[in-house]
Design brief:
alpha+beta; Dipeptide-binding Protein, domain 1; seven-stranded mixed sheet; 17 strands; globular
């Protein structure tokens, strides 16, 4: 599980310091934006764009913990919404929409705009629909606008059903404009949305040169407080950090991050994050339905070598179903360790004792995954599992995961809610929005459902006073 890291230089003036002119923050990144759509997973640069260009109903404040900065679910920062009310049984969430929010250009954002956004996300069937599902919604009809309120009915009274609406997969969008670009073969206008945006957030795109840089400028008509940074520039050059031409750098190749540790002009912050990198195996593939094959692979992946040679120590082994930063994530229950002889033994007990061939799909936007894939392929080849590495664009692989037709892949998951029930519903069940490898186990499904139902009842009994916020 890679740690979250950022690097900043002391050689250039940082944004926010006393100055008579506009404040600019320059953040060097390794990869360009793959899409301006807010409703799908992609490289972290896509998330940076979404957070600056789009707004959400509410957001968390942050707090410092021994493991670094985390969201604080007990302190909200209302954005498009001005208030939230959750019924005592947690089945009805009502958001009051502020009356002064607009898109860039002045079009009003009202309750109908918000409801249309969520309904568009549901109809489109992408990752945002999975997020709505993970928050207890089961139909577009569960989302309605009444006056200045948006009312959401939840089938499952999940504890996070209200406040998890801060996730940027469901940012507020101008559905009316998007649908003017819909076609017979693109019913929801998603192709237009890949490269175009009508901002609802604090920034707009000032200029963009694909493959070089993107510049965000603060919106003068934004409803909220004026951002402390007037302009954010994202150049695609890590080398600028060494020259002192940027304030921060993100999305580094970990080799460069390791190299930056020795530079006295560069400050690095590193903490245990909540982003996971996993090797997934599709349940529809006969070989991966075999439990002994999966055990063999678990023993044949050289995790320590990958952490050392790919992530340069900026990662931890993931030994739980939902990451070590989430309560209930106990790494002592993990029964596997790198052992090729043990891996060969498991494979010999499977229906494929001499091995097999398969494709390992990765995105071409992350150099670290390319390195990890090479190490995994070499190691699994030593027990008879022959992998061909296939690189896809972020858009291609996101579509493949949404359709659950990636046979084997390296993928990342960044959960925003530190709650084990959230992760069970989001990733572990057949209908889950992030069950990209179509994992199905009746036994595991029953355990997950019982666990979540019992836990939700306990929380409901303990925290009734917190329902109305």
């Amino acid at each position: 599980m890679p740690r979250s890291s950022s690097a900043g230089t002391g050689a250039a003036p940082t944004a926010g310091t006393a100055s008579s002119g506009p404040k600019t923050l320059t953040v060097a990144v390794e990869a360009d934006i793959s899409s301006l759509r807010p409703d799908r997973f992609g490289p972290f640069m896509d998330r940076y764009a979404n957070r600056t260009l789009y707004d959400v109903l509410l957001h968390f404040e942050t707090k410092q913990t021994p493991r670094g900065p985390w969201y604080d679910p007990d302190k909200y920062q209302f954005r498009i919404a001005s208030a939230m009310n959750v019924s005592p049984d947690r089945r009805l969430v009502t958001f009051t929409i502020r009356d002064n929010a607009t898109f860039d250009g002045g079009k009003k954002i009202d309750a109908e705009t918000v409801a249309k956004s969520f309904q568009w996300f549901w109809d489109n069937g992408g990752a945002a629909r999975g997020q709505l599902f993970s928050n207890g919604t089961t139909s577009r009809d569960d989302i309605v606008a009444e006056g200045n309120r948006v009312i959401i009915t939840l089938k499952d009274p999940v504890p996070w059903g209200g406040w998890a609406k801060f996730v940027d997969l469901r940012s507020i969008i101008d559905v009316d404009e998007i649908m003017t670009h819909a076609t017979d073969d693109d019913r929801f206008g998603t192709r237009w949305l890949e490269n175009n945006v009508i901002p609802s957030g604090p920034y707009k795109i000032e200029r963009r040169t694909k493959g070089e840089q993107i510049v965000m400028a603060a919106r003068p008509d934004y409803y909220g407080p004026k951002p402390g940074i007037d302009r954010i520039t994202f150049p695609l050059r890590y080398s600028l950090l060494k020259r002192g031409d940027v304030d921060m750098v993100s999305l580094l190749d970990f080799k460069d991050l390791d190299d930056a540790k020795s530079d006295p002009n560069v400050a690095i912050e590193s903490w245990d994050g909540n982003n996971w990198t996993v090797l997934g195996m599709n349940w529809k593939v006969p070989e991966f339905q075999d439990r002994n094959v999966r055990k063999a692979i678990a023993c044949a992946v050289p995790t320590d070598e990958i952490i050392r040679s790919v992530y340069y120590g900026f990662a931890n082994p993931m030994k739980t179903p939902w990451g070590t930063t989430v309560p209930g994530g106990d790494p002592t229950t993990w029964p596997y360790a790198f052992d090729l002889d043990r891996a060969r033994g498991y494979l010999a007990q499977s229906a494929f004792p001499t091995g097999f061939s398969q494709t390992l799909s990765i995105t071409n936007a992350d150099p670290n995954w390319d390195k990890a894939a090479q190490i995994i392929a070499e190691s699994l080849g030593r027990i008879g599992i022959r992998l061909t590495i296939e690189k896809q664009t972020p858009a291609q692989i996101a579509t493949g995961y949404a359709q659950r037709n990636i046979a084997m892949g390296i993928n990342a998951f960044t959960p925003f809610v530190h709650d084990p029930g959230y992760h069970a519903l989001w990733t572990q069940l057949p209908e889950s929005g992030a069950n990209w490898f179509d994992y199905r186990s009746a036994e595991a499904e029953e355990i997950a459902r019982q666990f979540r139902a019992r836990r939700d009842r306990l929380l409901l009994a303990r925290h009734r006073p917190l329902c109305d916020r």
